Amino acid sequence: MRSILFRSALKRGASTAIRSFSSESAPERKVAILGAAGGIGQPLALLMKLNPLVSTLSLYDIMGTPGVAADVSHINTRAQVAGFVGDDQLGDALKGADVVIIPAGVPRKPGMTRDDLFNINAGIVKGLCTAIAKHCPGALVNMISNPVNSTVPIAAEVFKKAGTYDEKKLFGVTTLDVVRAKTFYAGKGKVPVESVNVPVVGGHAGITILPLFSQATPAANALGAEDIKALTKRTQDGGTEVVEAKAGKGSATLSMAYAGAVFADACLKGLNGVPDVVECSFVQSTVTELPFFASKVRLGKNGVEEVLGLGPLSDFEKEGLEALKPELKASIEKGIKFANEN
Which EC numbers does the record give (predicted)? Predict the structure, then answer.
C-alpha cells in the first residue's frame, strides 16, 4: 500500500514539476551542462531533462558523463540526451547550444570561502569559456561556478578577447540566494512560501548578497528590525550552513541544482518570447558604479532585455549596499586581472 501511495505521489509531483516549467509546444532548444557529472551537475541534468522546453540536452564533464547521460536518457520526456567526455569532445557538446549552464569546478569544503576556490575554478571557467566563444558564441551563458563575483568577469574578458562578447547573454546565477531568501522569509513571517517574492541584489558571496526584504511580498507585518537582520545574515550564510551540516562531505548541490534549473527555464522562456520574465541575476550593469551587479533583469529573445533598478531601499539595506561595494569591486577586479594575466 505504501509503495502505491509513493508512486502516486511521485507521479503527481513529476507532472506538476513539468507543467510548472512551461507549455507543451515549444521550439527546438539545446541546453548544454558543463560539469554534468558533478554534485550540482547530476541533479541539474535530471531537472533539465524534466523541462519540456528542452529538446536536446548535452552533458559534458572530464569524466563520468556517459553514465549520467545513459541514466537520465531513460526518463520519458522530450529532451534527447547525449554525454560528452574530455577536451576533444567539448566542441561537439557545445555546438548549436542555445543555453550553456556551467556548474563545473571544485565544491566548497568546511572552512573554505568562495574565494579559496578561485585559483582552481578560475582556470576551469576560462578554458570552458574559450570553447564557448569558438563553438556557440551566441548562446546564453549561465555561470554557476564559484566565485561567481569573479568568474562572470573572467568569462566577459575571455569573450571580449575572442570578439564574441554580448553583455546581454552572460549571467551569474544568483537564484539560490533568492530561493533561500524566499524560504527563510516565509518561515519566519508565517506566509505561504509559494506566493513569496524577495529580490536579492549585489553579488553572490557573503555580505555581497543583499536581500531586499523591505520589498518582499506578501508583507509579513510581524517581522521587526532584528528579524530582518537575522534573515539577511542567514541568507548571506546559507551556503556555509549547508557546508557545515554536510560535515565535509559536500556543499549546496541539490538546492543549487534547483535554482540553476529555475533560472535556465526563465532564460528559455525569454528566448521563446514569453513576456514579463523577470529574475535576479549578476550581469553587466549600470545600476551602481560597479561594472557587474545582481539585480532584477527582464529576460527576452536576446537574453537581457532590461536591467531593472533597485527600487526603494530601507536604511538597513542602504547601509548593506554601501558595505558590500568594496568587497564586490575587489572580486570583480580579481577576475578581470586573472583573465588578462593568464
Answer: 1.1.1.37
